[in-house]
Structure formats: structure tokens, C-alpha cells
Design a protein that fits this description.
By secondary structure, this protein is α+β, with helices and mostly antiparallel strands. Helices cover about 15% and strands about 35% of the residues. A four-stranded antiparallel β-sheet has the order 1-2-3-4, with no helix packed on it. A three-stranded antiparallel β-sheet has the order 5-6-7, with no helix packed on it.
Length: about 100
């Protein structure tokens, strides 16, 4: 783990890691669950931060490239596709499959 940032109300945090297998994770402090993980950050993460409104996460990769992520990937996915998810979409947008 390289970096940790908390959202404004202290209910979620994001972890940035130099580990390229799981470089970015968003966690819910109330439930103790990982909400989502991002894997397409080449070379790991050097820095993370929440936007002031808590809707977006900024990560800076070890290669110094910035990335913006939705802080609630499931809500973002539903906004883009207002319908039931396929099993493949559930795996893509949810870090934990339904029923676990």
C-alpha cells in the first residue's frame, strides 16, 4: 500500500498500491467491505485523493499519468446502462459477486 485517502464524511477510503495486480481499491468503512477495485493502472498507484464532492477519485500512477475514477462505480454503470446487469457486467462493475 502506497497511499490512502478518506472521503469528506469519513465513510469510505481509497487505497492506492504499487502492486500491479490490484492497484486501486475503494472501501466502505461502515461495512468493512471493498466496494470496487480498478485494475487498469499500469505500474501501480503513487497518489490518491477524493474530489471535494466525493463523487470522483483521482489517482496518479507511478508513471505520473493521472486517472479519474467514479467513486461509486456501480451507480455510474447504472447511470450509463439503466437496466439489469449481465453476469459479465456484474463481474466487471462489482468487486464481490452477488450472493457472497
Amino acid at each position: 500500500m502506497n497511499e490512502v485517502a478518506f472521503d469528506r464524511d469519513g465513510t469510505r477510503f481509497v487505497v492506492g498500491s504499487g502492486d500491479v495486480t490490484e492497484p486501486l481499491g475503494i472501501w466502505d468503512l461502515r461495512k468493512g467491505d471493498e466496494i470496487a477495485a480498478a485494475f487498469d493502472v499500469e505500474g501501480g498507484v503513487a497518489c490518491v485523493a477524493f474530489s471535494p464532492d466525493g463523487a470522483t477519485i483521482l489517482s496518479i500512477a507511478n508513471d505520473r499519468h493521472p486517472h479519474l475514477w467514479p467513486a461509486d462505480p456501480l451507480a455510474e454503470a447504472r447511470r450509463r446502462r439503466p437496466r439489469d446487469f449481465t453476469p459479465d457486467e456484474r463481474r466487471r462493475y462489482l468487486s464481490t459477486p452477488p450472493g457472497r
